[in-house]
């Protein structure tokens, strides 16, 4: 707040002459306090305290009120905290009025400090601000005894607006809410019509539609959105999490997703459809580092796109993808603990990404819907993204379908672009997308292109990036299938079945895996050649040759098979001879000599009991004898001896 004013600033104010020279003459006549003016032009400045009272009041009104800051929370300031909380919730118009009142009271205080009487100061300020003396005294009463830092909040008008409410039965309001807060999203007018029908039946008191509309706005927005649009819509009311790539480098973390083009394409087989491309994007630089396109999204497209990334740049450390059927299948991500897709079995093979040491991260799912904000690649599919670069290319004129059925162009389905032309344009537009400069990502800084940011970071971190070996290259270059090794150490693939059934493969190295499941990697275009066999945990077993069916009378094939059989038998005998160094008779020499059997009768202290004369059943042929037992009586011993002799004769 300034206390010194030049003659030019004072000219024309209340109580002042209209010209600069007249102000200077009056200052000399009345003896105003003055000083030399600093800055360009020089001259003199006059103190506010020496000016006429009405001029001081006018100058104080021009000045903004002294800044007032909210007091810090200290002991015994609970009421002050509540006061300022209420002030902050008031609209800006109320806050502006509070600032005007504060300015008026500060002007009164300043005039009094400059020597004016309080009554005179109040009169002057009231006249300048267009208020009555009683109003200013009432304002002073609002802040009497309060700290000056609280004046702004105390002077805020307390007008609450209309507080009277229309009469409304509770049951009617509950009925309206049950009609309005539904996923179908009916309008307030339709729900009000239903309310009137129910009110006529039950005798409820219902206000006007405008009152109902105001009451609806009192329901928290989060509740309205959750009840009418669902969890996914409510989640979008809150700010998304912002992440930085400052700690990453090129190819450290990639993310991938599929995009279905809005272009009709004529495929090589003559069919027409909209192709789908799977993109892999580097998260640090946002560069598209790999892609493959086909008529649908499937595992081979993702596998080959990842292979392109690894072949050209290296193996990334992390990858973020959706939990889709094509990406979350066992061949890509099998073995990942949190792969919530398909049934997870212990015998499932380890997927391509875990075998390569790539840590898989799934995007979050909210109420069954994917969270696109978790993947930067989603933004490349938005407005001005790859869809604009590719789908609306001039070469695709007449083949563009529009983003949705309601946005079809006038030349919809006039033609279909050839597959070769589409692939050529797609490759060219992706190069242009990566090469565009002035990107506003964190790594590009508004100057570089995605490609430049990637190359710069890649060169500085080459020593950190893993390169693939020949064995690892087979993992993504070849398709895979899990099969069971049969009893004859053969196995069959379900792909490429012909007139003679499934293709069978065999190898000597599979004998140890009979009855177990193994992973077969193969080239779909060369199913009659060798295939590579792995254990489920990714360890390499060896190669297996295709077993071709021979003609029924083909003797040359028979001779070749017998020769192979003889070689295997000979090799097996040699292996047995090398494994078993001594015969069973030679090994028996190491057994201890058996001890001679002791034929001494065994003495027993058990005596036969005597229970008196046994009673015979009438007609029984049992004869009492003291010397002959039952076995002797019935010839049991003779029977056993005869049967034993008969058995020995049969053996001979």
From TrEMBL:
<dbReference type="InterPro" id="IPR004189">
    <property type="entry name" value="Phage_Mu_transposase"/>
</dbReference>
<feature type="domain" description="HTH Mu-type">
    <location>
        <begin position="1"/>
        <end position="67"/>
    </location>
</feature>
<dbReference type="Pfam" id="PF02914">
    <property type="entry name" value="DDE_2"/>
</dbReference>
<dbReference type="InterPro" id="IPR036388">
    <property type="entry name" value="WH-like_DNA-bd_sf"/>
</dbReference>
<dbReference type="InterPro" id="IPR009061">
    <property type="entry name" value="DNA-bd_dom_put_sf"/>
</dbReference>
<dbReference type="InterPro" id="IPR015378">
    <property type="entry name" value="Transposase-like_Mu_C"/>
</dbReference>
<dbReference type="InterPro" id="IPR009057">
    <property type="entry name" value="Homeodomain-like_sf"/>
</dbReference>
<dbReference type="InterPro" id="IPR015126">
    <property type="entry name" value="Mu_I-gamma"/>
</dbReference>
<feature type="region of interest" description="Disordered">
    <location>
        <begin position="25"/>
        <end position="48"/>
    </location>
</feature>
<dbReference type="InterPro" id="IPR036397">
    <property type="entry name" value="RNaseH_sf"/>
</dbReference>
<dbReference type="InterPro" id="IPR012337">
    <property type="entry name" value="RNaseH-like_sf"/>
</dbReference>
<dbReference type="GO" id="GO:0004803">
    <property type="term" value="F:transposase activity"/>
</dbReference>
<dbReference type="GO" id="GO:0015074">
    <property type="term" value="P:DNA integration"/>
</dbReference>
<keyword id="KW-0238">DNA-binding</keyword>
<dbReference type="Pfam" id="PF09039">
    <property type="entry name" value="HTH_Tnp_Mu_2"/>
</dbReference>
<dbReference type="GO" id="GO:0003677">
    <property type="term" value="F:DNA binding"/>
</dbReference>
<dbReference type="Pfam" id="PF02316">
    <property type="entry name" value="HTH_Tnp_Mu_1"/>
</dbReference>
<dbReference type="InterPro" id="IPR003314">
    <property type="entry name" value="Mu-type_HTH"/>
</dbReference>
<dbReference type="Pfam" id="PF09299">
    <property type="entry name" value="Mu-transpos_C"/>
</dbReference>
<dbReference type="InterPro" id="IPR009004">
    <property type="entry name" value="Transposase_Mu_C"/>
</dbReference>
<feature type="region of interest" description="Disordered">
    <location>
        <begin position="591"/>
        <end position="613"/>
    </location>
</feature>
<protein>
    <submittedName>
        <fullName>DNA-binding protein</fullName>
    </submittedName>
</protein>
<dbReference type="GO" id="GO:0006313">
    <property type="term" value="P:DNA transposition"/>
</dbReference>
């Amino acid at each position: 707040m300034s206390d010194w004013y030049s003659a030019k600033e004072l000219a024309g104010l209340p109580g002042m002459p209209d010209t600069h020279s007249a102000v200077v003459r009056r200052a000399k006549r009345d003896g105003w306090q003055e000083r030399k003016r600093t800055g360009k032009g020089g001259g003199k400045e006059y103190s506010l305290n020496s000016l006429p009272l009405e001029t001081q009041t006018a100058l104080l009104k021009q000045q903004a009120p002294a800044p007032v800051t909210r007091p810090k929370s200290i002991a015994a300031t609970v009421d002050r905290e509540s006061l300022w909380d209420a002030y902050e919730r008031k609209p800006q118009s109320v806050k502006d009025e509070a600032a005007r009142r504060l300015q008026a009271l500060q002007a009164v205080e300043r005039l009094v400090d400059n020597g004016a009487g309080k009554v005179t100061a109040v009169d002057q300020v009231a006249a300048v601000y267009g208020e009555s003396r009683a109003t200013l005294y009432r304002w002073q009463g609002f802040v009497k005894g309060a700290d000056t830092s609280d004046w702004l909040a105390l002077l805020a008008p307390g007008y609450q607006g209309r507080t009277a409410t229309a009469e409304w039965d509770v049951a009617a309001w509950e009925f309206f809410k049950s009609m309005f807060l539904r996923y179908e999203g009916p309008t307030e007018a339709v729900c009000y019509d239903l309310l009137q029908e129910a009110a006529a039946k039950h005798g409820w008191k219902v206000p006007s539609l405008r009152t109902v509309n105001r009451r609806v706005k009192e329901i928290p927005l989060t509740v309205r959105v959750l009840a009418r649009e669902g969890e996914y819509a409510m989640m979008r009311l809150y700010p998304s999490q912002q992440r930085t790539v400052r700690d990453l480098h090129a190819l450290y973390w990639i993310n991938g997703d599929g995009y279905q083009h809005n272009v009709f394409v004529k495929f090589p087989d003559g069919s027409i459809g909209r192709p789908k491309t799977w993109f892999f994007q580097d998260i640090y630089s946002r560069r598209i580092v790999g892609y493959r396109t086909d008529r649908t999204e499937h595992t081979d497209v993702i596998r080959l796109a990842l292979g392109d990334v690894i072949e050209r740049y290296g193996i990334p450390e992390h990858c973020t993808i959706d939990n889709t059927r094509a990406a979350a299948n066992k061949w890509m991500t099998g073995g990942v603990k949190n792969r919530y897709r398909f049934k997870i079995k212990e015998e499932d093979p380890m997927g391509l990404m875990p075998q390569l040491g790539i840590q898989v991260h799934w995007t979050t799912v909210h109420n069954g819907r994917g969270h696109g904000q978790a993947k930067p690649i989603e933004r490349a599919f938005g407005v001005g993204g790859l869809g604009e670069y590719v789908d609306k290319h001039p070469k695709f004129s007449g083949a563009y379908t529009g983003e949705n059925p309601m946005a079809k162009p006038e030349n919809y389905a006039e033609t279909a672009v050839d597959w070769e032309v589409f692939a050529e344009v797609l490759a060219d537009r992706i190069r242009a997308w990566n090469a565009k400069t002035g990107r506003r990502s964190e790594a590009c800084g508004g100057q570089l292109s995605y490609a430049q940011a990637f190359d710069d970071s890649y060169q500085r971190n080459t020593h950190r990036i893993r390169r693939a070996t020949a064995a690892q290259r087979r993992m993504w270059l070849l398709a895979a299938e899990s099969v069971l090794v049969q009893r004859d150490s053969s196995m069959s693939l379900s792909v490429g079945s012909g007139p003679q059934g499934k293709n069978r493969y065999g190898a000597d190295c599979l004998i140890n895996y009979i009855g177990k499941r193994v992973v077969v990697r193969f080239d779909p275009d060369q199913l009659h050649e060798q295939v590579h066999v792995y254990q489920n945990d990714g360890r390499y077993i060896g190669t297996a040759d295709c077993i071709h069916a021979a003609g029924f009378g083909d003797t040359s094939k028979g001779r070749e098979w017998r020769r192979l059989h003889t070689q295997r038998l000979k090799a097996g005998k040699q292996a047995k001879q090398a494994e078993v160094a001594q015969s069973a008779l030679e090994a028996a020499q190491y057994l201890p000599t058996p001890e001679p059997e002791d034929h001494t009768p065994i003495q027993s202290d058990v005596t036969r009991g005597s229970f008196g004369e046994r009673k015979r059943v009438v007609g029984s042929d049992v004869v009492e004898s003291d010397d002959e037992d039952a076995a002797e009586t019935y010839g049991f011993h003779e029977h056993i001896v005869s049967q034993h002799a008969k058995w020995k004769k049969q053996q001979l």
